[in-house]
Amino acid sequence: MTRRTKYLLDESDLPTQWYNIVPDLPEPPPPPLHPGTREPVTPADLAPLFPAALIEQEVSTDRHIDIPAEVLDVYRLWRPSPLYRAHRLEAALNTPARIYYKYEGGSPAGSHKPNTAVPQAFYNAQEGITRLTTETGAGQWGSALAFAGAVFGLDCEVWQVRASYDQKPYRRLMMETYGATVHPSPSDRTAAGRAVLADHPDSPGSLGIAISEAVEVAAADPGARYALGSVLNHVLLHQTVIGEEALRQFELAGDRPDLIIGCTGGGSNFAGLTFPFLREKLAGRGTPVIRAVEPAACPSLTRGVYAYDFGDTAGLTPLLKMHTLGHDFIPDPIHAGGLRYHGMSPLLSHIYHLGLIEAVAIGQSECFAAGVRFARTEGILPAPEPTHALAACIREALRCKETGEEKVILTALCGHAHLDLPAYGRYLAGEVVDHDLPEAAIQDALARLP
Ligand SMILES: *Cc1c(COP(=O)(O)O)cnc(C)c1O
């Protein structure tokens, strides 16, 4: 029998509902608080920033939410996405483990981000909004929203973290080709940006600063709203199409995962893949271990605290209870720009706090080594972010080689690296180093928690 490499679903198998994990959790997650009153935020507090449909999803306790037909039509450009069995990587590692990856790099932007950019643009357009503002770290989110804005006729304005703006000129050109306007962040166009530049004229920027800038501009324009590519409940919700498809693909494969591994920046690709499996686990169907992998340079789950903090640097957002390194913590400009966020999704933080998932932090050089190993066996060049998950997969596969265990490992290959090649260039030239993150740097930022 010839061996199967890809498990493919038909377009007619595309999930028609997103999965909301909140009603299935043993305790509800703590609510976001108004920074002034410290009372739970109301939908009216959020209305200047988000359309009503997304605010409703943000606080929904419905287990399933219908995906609008207009969104499904756009999803069909690249969904369902393939589930691969990594036969060649397994052979190279000489492991008895079976490794599967769900590949999201086939989307127009090259990552999982369009799964939420498309519905966010759709709901905004439906409510008469004409302009969206946002931030981007790696450039993947900005590209995804620029694409979705083009589809639904919205102007899209993106603050791109300075380190990324300088390292990734092609990401900017991609956004501009889709019709978006791109500013480096910190910029002199906002009070938040000017405040950072006054103290640090050479600031490499951070997602927290870029969020402050995009929020400030959206809040001042009644025709504009702000869009966030990760962290919030509705973003994680939209990403669950990944896991719903993967569940069906594992049925086709006649297999089931023992260990599910994903990288976490704000938590959305990880949640998207794992929440449907966690639903099955909580219902007593299967017992997979679920492991988040974060960069050693920005370890919010493994070295941060679980506390109320701002989602942005300037303190413009509601207070979110999350694992955080402190809202003004500026991580080293590592190449995995999508993982350079000081906090973690409040919903995922709550789930981690409940002990339903585990977390590890891995340094850059091991991750790039894993990315190169993957490229040379499976062919796809992984974005720097999912190399963190691949490094953890390889650690586990090598452990299985020692023990002889035929563990089934599933990971999210959430993006490709075609516009991240300078990072690989630096790795191949021996220039990627592991930054030591001293405990004092974390404690310093945590001392300024609100
Ligand atoms: C944005 C991004 C991430 C980090 O965001 P999450 O919300 O944690 O998924 C990871 N990988 C890629 C490819 C991204 O574009």
Automatic annotation (TrEMBL):
GO terms for molecular function: L-serine hydro-lyase (adding indole, L-tryptophan-forming) activity; pyridoxal phosphate binding; tryptophan synthase activity. Its EC number is 4.2.1.20. It holds the Pfam family PALP. Residues 77-415 form the Tryptophan synthase beta chain-like PALP domain. InterPro entries: Trp_synth_b-like (IPR006316), Trp_synth_beta (IPR006654), Trp_synth_beta/beta-like (IPR023026), TrpB-like_PALP (IPR001926), TrpB-like_PALP_sf (IPR036052). The keyword DNA damage does not apply. Pathway: Amino-acid biosynthesis; L-tryptophan biosynthesis; L-tryptophan from chorismate: step 5/5. It catalyses: (1S,2R)-1-C-(indol-3-yl)glycerol 3-phosphate + L-serine = D-glyceraldehyde 3-phosphate + L-tryptophan + H2O. The modification N6-(pyridoxal phosphate)lysine is found at K113. Its cofactor is pyridoxal 5'-phosphate. GO terms for cellular component: cytoplasm. It is an enzyme of class 4 (lyase). CDD domains: Trp-synth_B. SUPFAM superfamilies: Tryptophan synthase beta subunit-like PLP-dependent enzymes (SSF53686). Keywords: Amino-acid biosynthesis, Aromatic amino acid biosynthesis, Lyase, Pyridoxal phosphate, Tryptophan biosynthesis. Belongs to the TrpB family. The beta subunit is responsible for the synthesis of L-tryptophan from indole and L-serine. Tetramer of two alpha and two beta chains. This is Tryptophan synthase beta chain. It comes from Solihabitans fulvus.
